[in-house]
Design a protein that fits this description.
This protein is mainly alpha-helical. The protein has helices at 15-24, 30-34, 43-47, 60-79, 96-100, 132-149, 171-186, 199-203, 210-217, 242-246, 267-279, 299-307, 317-329, 334-345, 386-392, 419-431, 433-436, 440-470, 474-495, 503-511, 517-530, 556-577, 584-600, 613-624; strands at residues 86-87, 92-93, 106-108, 125-127, 155-157, 193-197, 225-229, 249-253, 285-290. Helix content is 47%, strand content 5%. The two termini are 42 Å apart. It comes from Nicotiana tabacum.
């Protein structure tokens, strides 16, 4: 991070141990906190007040080890000259606090993505900033951090209003809330600066008009708030808000949702956006940032974004990409440079304004009735499906976790480029293999580009199977469904050839945190659940967040995505054979039971790559694209 110029990193690890110490002073018991803290894979959402208890409880071992780890992290950050950003109090409190302080202004929030409003996980409690107890608890939390870590920073993050709309749009009320949030920080630290996500101004733009935005942004002394323009790579707020009405802000790239693995980017926006913002009239931009939901994908995007902290003038991206490929693979290669030129104009040139969340059919298999009675249009079976897929992708969504999927509608994978052009780039990559096959970075990019191309092909194969089903062509359904299943197997074998695409690495890293067998089982369940079903389900209803954090990892395709698709296509063929309606409920029941069993299971997966990536990629290219 230091070598990339990062000097203001979030330092959120171990905060549950601090909260335990604070809440114990308010007579909140360990049992109460077991119902409050989320599990290790769901901490972020419990901290934001989206859920409680899911994946928990957190053991004392976990709390102690994470606190010790946080102290090591902070020590290293300070040693490297960084300024850590610590968490502050946003109002999210345990349910038990309402019983202890019955007159406190504590509201129970609405449901956030549970299947049926299950109170075991949903509907958390929010202490209003207007209540005196808010300032008291907020001050206690920051003082406890200073007591544990020392006086190491003046910058604190708080997002009380993130996807949580205030009860009134009165600017005076909003100003009083903002003032109280800041007061809770400044009472413990006179020099406190509030770092706030600007996501709310995008996700809830109907509420946050100019008067409301100004009221919040001006509720603290000037210079004591910094806003993260969170989605500036696609939807910059600074342009439509008069530079956040004079409030300092950081130009941020969001880029990724759910830690999904998908080649995607807007390189032109990354290369020009920060410079345009900094040189604009009356600019209040004070830095650049990255706030992706998941990393470890698209190295070119993060390499470029990191450089933007050091650049002040416009530059030629195609020349930069030539330099990038030379640095990345260790030598100049004409075929690779030509391939990168294609990728720059296709995969890394997404200008449709759609937030990229991978909904490819392999990793987010459609949960719907394909009979056609609902009027969903699946037209044509030609292999050039770009226009159709782009039509399917013509939807907008603002909230990060908002889903519209119902049994009557087909989820829509995002496609913004010519797949034919990208296949040409893949051919050039393969041709360069004779010279570059010894490079680990070349191997990673080759595997990733092959995966991307095969996954987009699988989307078309799925649509062909559905079209055949609607024509009642049983033979074609069988052919297309078998091709889809074979693509899953082939992509799994491809991914197995590179260490960066292995399910085993994820599961073993989770288990290695455990101090005993119970923790080991819990941590593995957390790791498996986050990347699959994610949240709660019933016998006939998948989680509303199923596949939110889907991954193209070897092991996950063969063991999870393949059986799911197999069950679906078997029932599809069966309904044609028996001349009966497709049994959606039967599919759900069988599939959900399989998923829950997989989440609970403990079978091992490889942690070392197997196979020759170039040979496998070449063979699959010849099989599917030649």
């Amino acid at each position: 991070m230091t070598l990339q110029g990062i000097n203001l990193p979030l330092a959120f690890t171990g905060q549950e141990a601090i909260w335990q110490k604070v809440f114990l002073d308010y007579n909140i018991t360990t049992q109460d906190l077991n119902d409050f803290f989320g599990g290790p894979a769901f901490l972020a959402w419990a901290r934001m007040g989206n859920l409680h208890a899911w994946g928990g409880p957190l053991s004392q071992n976990w709390l102690n080890i994470q606190l010790a780890l946080q102290k090591q992290i902070l020590s290293r950050m300070r040693e490297l000259g960084m300024t850590p950003v610590l968490p502050s109090f946003s109002g999210n409190v345990p349910a038990a606090l309402k019983k202890i302080f019955p007159s406190a202004n504590i509201t129970r929030l609405g449901d956030w993505n549970t299947v049926n409003g299950d109170p075991r996980w949903c509907c958390t409690f929010l202490l209003a900033p207007s209540d005196p107890l808010f300032i008291e608890i907020g001050e206690a939390f920051i003082r406890k951090q200073i007591e544990e870590y020392g006086d190491i920073t003046d910058i604190y993050n708080c997002d009380t209003f993130n996807e949580n709309t205030p009860p009134t749009d009165d600017p005076t009320y909003i100003s009083s809330l903002g003032s109280a949030v800041y007061k809770a920080m400044s009472k413990a630290d006179n020099n406190a600066v509030w770092l706030m996500q600007g996501w709310l101004f995008y996700s809830d733009s109907k509420y946050w008009k100019s008067p409301q935005m100004e009221a919040l942004l001006h509720s603290v002394p000037r210079g004591k708030m910094i806003v993260l323009d969170l989605f500036a790579d696609v939807k910059p707020i600074w342009k439509s808000s008069s530079q956040f009405y004079g409030t300092p802000y950081i130009w941020c790239m969001l880029h990724n949702f759910g830690g999904n693995i998908e080649m995607y980017g807007v390189l032109d926006a990354v290369a020009s956006g920060p410079i345009d913002a900094r040189t604009s009239e009356n600019s209040t931009m004070v830095g650049v940032g990255m706030c992706m939901e998941g990393i470890e994908h698209n190295p070119v995007v993060y390499e470029l974004m990191s450089e933007m902290a050091f650049r002040e003038d416009n530059f030629q991206l195609q020349g930069w990409l030539k330099s990038y490929s030379h640095r990345r693979y260790g030598k100049v290669n004409d075929q690779i440079q030509a391939a990168w030129d294609i990728l720059y104009h296709t995969i890394y040139n997404c200008t449709d304004g759609i937030a990229d969340h991978n909904k490819d059919y392999i990793v987010e298999f459609p949960d719907w009735d394909p009979s056609g009675k609902t009027g969903t249009d699946i037209s044509g079976t030609d292999s050039s499906s770009q226009n159709r897929m782009q039509k399917l992708a013509g939807f907008q969504w603002n909230r990060r976790f908002l889903f519209f999927e119902k049994s009557s509608s087909l989820p829509k994978p995002h496609l913004w480029y010519s797949t034919e052009d990208v296949i040409k780039a893949l051919q050039l990559f393969i041709d360069a293999g004779k010279e570059l096959s010894g490079s680990l970075t070349y191997r990673y990019d080759l595997v990733d580009l092959s995966r991307q191309s095969l996954s987009k092909l699988a989307n078309q194969v799925y649509l062909d199977a559905i079209s055949a089903f609607r024509r009642e062509d049983a033979k074609a359904v069988s052919q297309h469904s078998q091709k889809f299943l074979q693509l899953i197997k082939d992509i799994d074998r491809l991914l197995a050839a590179d260490d960066n695409f292995l399910l085993g690495t994820w599961l073993e890293s989770a288990k290695n945190l455990a101090m005993n067998s119970d923790e080991k089982k819990q941590y593995e369940w957390n790791a498996r659940t986050q990347i699959t079903m994610w949240f709660d389900n019933t016998k006939y209803n998948q989680s509303q967040l199923h596949d939110y954090a889907n991954k193209f990892w070897s092991g996950l395709l063969e063991a999870y995505y393949l059986p799911r698709a197999s069950i679906y296509f078997e029932l599809l063929s069966k309904s044609l054979k028996e001349k009966v309606d497709f049994k959606l409920e039967e599919w759900r029941k069988e599939w959900i039971a399989y998923s829950n069993k997989w989440q609970e299971s403990t079978e091992l997966y490889p942690v070392k790559a197997q196979g020759d990536a170039l040979a496998i990629a070449t063979a699959l290219f010849e099989k599917y694209f030649s």
